[in-house]
Automatic annotation (TrEMBL):
Listed CDD domains: ENDO3c
GO molecular function: 4 iron, 4 sulfur cluster binding; class I DNA-(apurinic or apyrimidinic site) endonuclease activity; DNA binding; DNA N-glycosylase activity; metal ion binding
Name of the protein in its database record: Endonuclease III
EC number: 4.2.99.18
Organism of provenance: Anaerocolumna jejuensis DSM 15929
Binding-site residues, [4Fe-4S] cluster: 196, 203, 206, 212
Catalyzed chemical reaction(s): 2'-deoxyribonucleotide-(2'-deoxyribose 5'-phosphate)-2'-deoxyribonucleotide-DNA = a 3'-end 2'-deoxyribonucleotide-(2,3-dehydro-2,3-deoxyribose 5'-phosphate)-DNA + a 5'-end 5'-phospho-2'-deoxyribonucleoside-DNA + H(+)
Length: 220
């Protein structure tokens, strides 16, 4: 769906989808990555690329005890940090980006994670997904986070035909009311983990079955 302006029927269908998501999942803002500070969330989100939140939380439990401040990360030995985060995958790039990112935060931002998406995406290892996690969870700015669940399920719902995460984000900004931008990600993560799983979606058990546009749903 190349969305520019929704028809009345499409607006109603989107509203029905969101109402059902609200009914079945949380209406509270929550973050699946454990953190106590904005910079900890930033590092955890960098680590979450191509890695599960559960694995990241296991790693950061010890990581944030070893490196207690931004300055600790900025001064970290690259090889040592690589070993500390090895199990999250892509650890060479992640370690390098974390050190560069934290150095920039210390030197240019006084240790404060910026709110502006342009400033965030200039940090090493920070794309729009990571930036929107920070904007939504730290600053409560309406933001759409396009992770694997959002990409997969938004396509099945017919909210987008795009494959590129940035294009999907902008499609969803046109489809979804702003008050659901953050909630949608949280609810779709829950839906993607429990019902609309990547490998074996439970279509017949899905409360969105009649609203779903996925052609393969009748084969499940």
């Amino acid at each position: 769906m190349a969305v520019k302006r929704l028809t009345k029927n499409e607006r109603e269908r989107v509203g029905q989808v969101l109402s059902l998501l609200d009914e079945h999942y949380t209406m509270e803002y929550k973050c699946y990555l454990n953190h106590e500070t904005p910079w900890q969330l930033l590092i955890a989100t960098i680590l979450s690329a191509q890695c599960t939140d559960a694995r990241v939380n296991l790693v950061t439990e010890d990581l944030f005890k070893k490196y207690r401040t931004l300055e600790d990360f900025a001064a970290a030995d690259l090889k040592e940090l690589e070993q500390d985060i090895h199990s999250t995958g892509f650890y060479h790039n992640k370690a390098k980006n974390i050190i560069e990112c934290t150095k920039t935060l210390v030197k240019e931002y006084g240790g404060v994670v910026p709110k502006d998406i342009e400033a965030l995406t200039k940090l090493a290892g920070v794309g729009r997904k990571t930036a929107n996690v920070i904007r939504g969870n730290v600053y409560h700015e309406p933001s759409i986070v396009v992770d694997t669940h959002v990409k997969r399920i938004s396509g099945k719902l017919g909210f987008t035909k795009e494959e590129d995460p940035v294009k999907i984000e902008f499609d969803l900004m046109k489809v979804l009311p702003k008050d659901h931008w953050i909630l949608y990600n949280l609810q779709i993560i829950a839906h993607g983990r429990s019902i609309c799983t990547a490998r074996s979606p439970k279509c017949r058990d899905c409360f969105l079955f009649n609203l779903c546009r996925w052609e393969g749903k009748n084969d499940e």
